[in-house]
Amino acid sequence: MQIKSRVVNNTLYIMLSGELDEYSASTVRKNLDTLLDTQKGFVQIVMDLSELTFMDSTGVGVLIGRYKKMRECNKPIFITNPSRNAERIFEMSGLFKIMPKIV
Amino acid sequence: MRNSMEIKFKAIAENEAFARNVVASFVLPLNPTLSEIDDLKTAVSEAVTNVVVHAYPNSTGYITMKVVTQNNTIAISISDNGIGIQDIEKALTPFYTSKPNEERSGMGFTVMESFMDKLEVTNNKNGVTVKMLKQIENKKENDNAVGF
Which of A52, B19, B20, B42 has its CA 20 to 30 A from that of B28? Predict the structure, then answer.
């Protein structure tokens, strides 16, 4: 599981690559939190899931956790390029209501 | 043609990818679509995650996974010898989690139900068995019942 990031025009783009499940979740949580705590100069976040090859509902918990963290500093998170199954899981769990999908 | 397999592996998160990939490989002769393979992998991952997270709080146990295929139907059974589920009806409720402090979505069984055609959860004398069925769409007219 790899996390790449860059800031463009006050937006922090985060690209998750690989498989997000119970096995990788704790590392992903830790690495995302470190990134969100240390990165400067952004007012919103876009999570690009185009390279996420597998995700189960563990991913919803991970993303909601980061949403709660960023809500405290009023930085919205948007989701882009989820796979078909990730999209279904997000829709089922209502995740897009708090982390809208963008194209 | 009927085919079947059974494996036993340690209930640790590291084995989730192993379990879902084994199922994906085993069902390939049925010629499923990529979407159907993704559905199966996701459902298996959810079932194995449940065992890893809940079944053995004070020890490391094992998971037994059986897969039976016949014509266009895939039956998957995932069992453990853990502490069981106190209230199955509650556990099946969307968003319910017995571990609300661990960033868990409580969507595991809901995902299994949605991605498979049938889900059955039972407490055994020792542990829990989750049985799931899925039919491969493009061969639906050749349906024959399959079970354990």
Answer: A52
- Taking CB atoms and an 8 Å limit, are B14 and A23 in contact across chains? yes
**Residue A50, token pair as written in the block:** 């185009």
In a domain? residue A103: no
Taking alpha carbons only, the member of A10, A13, A5, A56 closest to residue B13 is: A56
pTM: 0.92
Q: What is the mean pLDDT of each run of 10 residues along chain B (148 residues)?
A: 96 98 97 96 98 94 98 96 94 90 90 97 94 83 56
CATH of region B2-138, choose from 2.40.50.1000, 3.40.50.300, 3.30.565.10, 3.30.450.20 = 3.30.565.10
Q: Do A57 and B41 touch (CB under 8 A)?
A: no
- Residues of B within 8 A of A57 (CB-CB) are 46, 49, 105, 107-108, 110-111
Q: Using DSSP, how many helices (H) and how many strands (E) does chain B show?
A: 4, 5
Q: How far is A30 from chain B (nearest CA, A)?
A: 13
